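Ticket #4471: structure output looks truncated?

Reporter: J.K.
Steps to reproduce: submitted the chain below (260 residues) through the standard prediction queue, then opened the result file.
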Amino acid sequence: MSAQGPADRSDANKPARSKKRRRRGSGLLRRFWRSDGVSASVSAAIYALLRAVHATQRPVAGSCDFRRILTEQHPAIVGLWHGQHLLAPFFRPRELPYAALLSRSADAELNARVVEAFGIATIRGSGGRQTTKRTKRKGGARALVAMRRLLAEGTGICMIADIPKGTAREAGLGIVTLAKISGRPIVPSGAVTSRHHIVEGAWDKTRIPLPFGRIAVVMGAPIHVPADADDELLEIKRREVSCAIEAANREAERLVGITS
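Returned output as attached by the reporter:
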């Protein structure tokens, strides 16, 4: 057996050092993009771009009168899917207060800044990828309490119904639990533009609206959850919410001419 010399050992360590440098570089890049200055600049640019794109959208015939619906039901829980959140700030009565639930993760900070630029308050929820299950449960419980309080005070809630990194377009129990403890209705909602780019690599197939398209907003009948609902009824209501939000989105797609 031949002895390994210093040069051989150095060569063997090269892959490990290279991997460590890549990790260090990736971490520095993440910190740069998450810094306050960069986050503020990027969020301001996204806000301006979304407003500019929305100004070019033409509402289609058959799109619902969301101002009337949400005014009549206020304060309501507006339920929609992940991947369509970029349109959410535009289908609410601007004179009514609204808040949106967002993750506590560092990646959600940019989304929070954009949402707040539209005059929508933010509630930070259960945390990011590195959060423990116990901490997530605590964060989720605190978020539910905060949203119940806001609803009691007259602030509507905009809530993404499906669970991050879970099954897209399948409502979680959070939205029906909030309806149960608050006594406020869930308004199943969908908004679709005829011109958009789908981020295929995203778990939720995020749709980025493009200029000069047609837009449709559809809202289904309000869904109420009794205060004494047991686990079985909550599951029934969860499925009802899933079907209603999906139906609203399918109808919005039909109105703008999207067929699947």
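Triage note (M.O.): checked the attachment and the full token line is present. The chain has a mean pLDDT of 86.
Status: closed, working as intended.
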